[in-house]
TrEMBL record:
InterPro entries reported in the protein's UniProt record: LysR_HTH_N, LysR_subst-bd, WH-like_DNA-bd_sf, WH_DNA-bd_sf
Key words of the record: DNA-binding, Transcription, Transcription regulation
Domain HTH lysR-type: 8-65
Similarity comment text for this entry: Belongs to the LysR transcriptional regulatory family.
Transmembrane segments: none
Coiled coil: none
Organism: Nocardia jinanensis
A Pfam family matched in the record: LysR_substrate
Name recorded for this polypeptide: LysR-family transcriptional regulator
């Protein structure tokens, strides 16, 4: 389809509609970032092109002629169609942008994901990444529901019904504040004693909590929690104040241990508490493309 020679461009139609909306050629010119003489010249050129008088210009403003009103009505339809066209093109471009939806437990999100994403960006800078942060149970829910392409969790076991890959192990340490009696203790704490001691816990669904509860469960029913707190930051603050011991990832505890605001408590018999970091995914949608590259970045060389 070839446009007739008299077909005006969209910009001058938009200017004419602004004159109709504002009732003033000067106000329309300001809306479009041009001088009034420049706007007047553009409208005059449109009138010559269409061979119609569109405006009655007077000292109090500009008013549309009858042909001008008819042209404005059609211009609004054309401009609305052009806006829809542009929105469609923008949506098509957005659909072509590769996207990766990640869900990660809090410790991994804070201490591991930033480096993994930097490594991924070095390989695939075109990928747009979104990250949801929660505890291990919440991440599993997002992956099962298909709301995350891949998840990163910690815990002693692979989540049932999901695919996954172990990425490595993370050591857990028992810590207390400087004023807690265990800070001055000269002999190690046994796992049996730790199990019988009220601890500062994360909320149910935390991978750290699940790991520690499973280990200590072999030594008798665990003591009631000293407190259940929703973040590692809150647990660190409570432990720092000496209220109770806590079991934390070395990733979380390291800064506090280095400054002496927390003290590590030795465990008897060389016991070591560890948990696994793993990538998880829906079995019907194993990682591919950017998701597979991210798993490789997380697993390391």
């Amino acid at each position: 389809m070839t446009l007739p020679p008299a077909t005006p461009d969209l910009a001058v139609l938009d200017l004419l509609v602004s004159v109709a909306d504002t009732g003033s050629l000067g106000a329309a010119a300001r809306r479009h970032g041009m001088t009034q003489p420049a706007a007047s010249m553009r409208i005059s050129a449109l009138e010559r092109r269409l061979r119609l008088r569109l405006l009655d210009r007077g000292p109090t403003g500009s008013t549309l002629t009858a042909p001008g009103r008819a042209v404005v009505d059609q211009a609004r339809t054309v401009l609305a169609a052009a806006a829809t066209f542009n929105e469609t093109v923008t949506a098509l471009h957005a659909a072509e942008i590769p996207r990766l939806r990640i869900a990660a437990s809090k410790t991994i999100a804070d201490h591991r994901v930033p480096q993994w994403l930097a490594d991924l960006r070095a390989i695939r800078p075109d990928v747009v990444v979104s990250l949801e942060v929660g505890n291990t149970a919440q991440v599993e829910v997002l992956v099962r529901a298909g709301e995350a392409d891949i998840g990163f969790v910690e815990g002693p076991h692979p989540p049932p019904g999901l695919g996954g890959r172990v990425l490595g192990a993370d050591e857990l340490v028992v810590v207390v504040g400087p004023t807690h009696p265990w800070a001055a203790r000269t002999h190690p704490v046994s796992l049996r004693e730790l199990a019988a001691t009220p601890l500062l816990w994360r909320e149910s669904g935390s991978g750290t909590r699940e790991t520690v509860e499973q280990i200590l469960g072999a030594y008798g029913p665990p003591a009631p929690p000293a407190a259940e707190l929703g973040s590692a930051v809150a647990i660190v603050a409570a432990a720092r104040g000496g209220s109770a011991p806590a079991v934390l990832s070395t990733l979380v505890a390291a800064p506090e241990l280095s400054t002496g605001t927390l003290h590590q408590v030795a465990l008897a018999d060389g016991a070591v508490l560890t948990r696994q970091f793993r990538a998880i995914w829906h079995r019907g949608n194993p990682p591919a493309g950017a998701a597979e590259l991210l798993v490789r970045c997380a697993a390391g060389p």
